[in-house]
Specification:
- The chain has 5 helices and 7 strands, in the order βαααβββαβαββ.
- With 178 residues, it is of the alpha+beta class.
- β2 and β3 form a beta hairpin.
- The protein is 29% helix and 30% strand.
- It has a 7-stranded mixed sheet with strand order 1-2-3-4-5-7-6.
- The protein starts with a strand and ends with a strand.
- The chain has a single domain, classed as Aminopeptidase, CATH 3.40.630.30.
Length: 178
């Protein structure tokens, strides 16, 4: 079935392709076409996660089924291109929540447990690093999975995208119990 590993710089092109497919296909029914297009400016890969060794790839027979990571840095969401959202400041596990970041499932593998597996990998790693809470900025299409994994909404926002198109997002959090 599924295997998992940490992402490496050599995976960047394949990861970006999976992310583009996930944004284009899995947001349908939750966002308008304009919001889906704007999502590409709001979401994306943060290569700092790969450099930090906190970004996972789930594969089936060598094919990327999904990916996602966690972070001990203050950035809550956004990719390398989202300069105004990035904050590399380290978080304090005793007082801050780890960040669950950049969760994407290839559309061919949707609803097969990939997201839950990535979430478990991230939560286990954050817990092992001493974090007692986790937070994320969720898409509307991801909200059902995250609720099923025990995350609760904290606040709803509209992230500004290009051409004045806002993308609805939900900041969610969860206690990481031992």
């Amino acid at each position: 079935m599924f295997t998992h590993r940490l992402a490496a710089p050599a995976d960047l092109e394949a990861l970006r392709a999976v992310m583009a497919l996930a944004i284009a296909e899995l947001q349908k029914g939750f966002l308008t076409d304009a919001q889906i297009a704007a999502s590409n400016a709001v979401m994306g890969l943060d290569t700092q996660l790969i450099a930090d060794g906190t970004y996972f790839i789930v594969e089936e027979n060598g094919r990327i089924a999904g990916c996602g990571g966690w972070s001990h840095r203050a950035t809550l969401y956004g990719g390398d291109h989202s300069k105004d959202l990035r904050d590399p400041a380290p978080l304090d596990p005793a007082t801050d929540a780890a960040r669950i970041r950049a969760m994407y499932t290839h559309p061919d593998f949707a609803r097969r447990g990939v997201g839950r597996l990535v979430m478990a990998l991230c939560e286990d790693a954050a817990r092992a690093a001493g974090f007692r809470r986790a937070e994320m900025m969720a898409t509307l299409s991801g909200e059902p999975l995250y609720r099923a994994c025990g995350y609760e909404p904290i606040e709803r926002i509209e992230a500004p995208g290009p051409d004045g198109v806002a993308v609805p997002l939900i900041r969610m959090g969860k206690a990481l119990t031992p």
